[in-house]
Design goal:
It is built from seven helices and six strands, in the order ββββαββαααααα. The protein is of the alpha+beta class and about 150 residues long. Strand 2 and strand 3 form a beta hairpin.
Length: about 150
């Protein structure tokens, strides 16, 4: 998905690795990842049906299962058990975003790196370093020194 497009599909990542990033004139700022057994879409665009400010790129060979927004919303409305699951997923993701906000507020790159190691150590094994550096808002060289 490219920035400027409207997101109509929610994807389940069966296998693979993707990144969500915010493109600017000078850089692509990584804001998140999706990997095996996670969901991905440009969520603001998916909900508001407005053009996305974000882009999504596969970083590895990826197998996705997708559902169109209309079908997904109908399914949520008609299935109470799934509605509870979806609410739990939204809550879990919101808590993760709040933790991410804290990470971004920390001025010390070493603190940001340590928090990622504590919170999501699997990312360090799975995601290429240049994208981890972008996600942590530091240069790849700084990340190498911290490792």
């Amino acid at each position: 998905m490219q920035a400027g497009q409207v997101e109509y599909t929610l994807y389940f990542v069966h296998k693979g690795l993707l990144r969500v990033y915010y493109p600017t004139e000078s850089e692509e700022i990584c804001v998140g990842f999706a990997y095996d057994q996670t969901l991905i879409c440009s969520f603001p665009s998916f909900i508001n049906q407005q053009p996305s400010a974000y882009a999504i790129q596969a970083l590895r060979r990826t197998e996705l299962l997708g559902i169109h927004r209309t079908d997904f919303m109908r399914f949520v409305d008609e299935n109470a058990a799934f509605t509870r699951f979806w609410r739990t997923e939204l809550e879990r993701n919101l808590l993760g975003r709040i933790e991410r906000e804290i990470d971004l507020l920390l001025p010390d790159p070493a603190q940001r790196y340590q928090r990622l190691r504590t919170r999501s150590p699997h990312i360090l094994q799975y995601v290429p370093r240049k994208y981890i550096a972008s996600y942590l808002r530091m240069t790849p060289e700084t990340l190498s020194r911290l490792r």
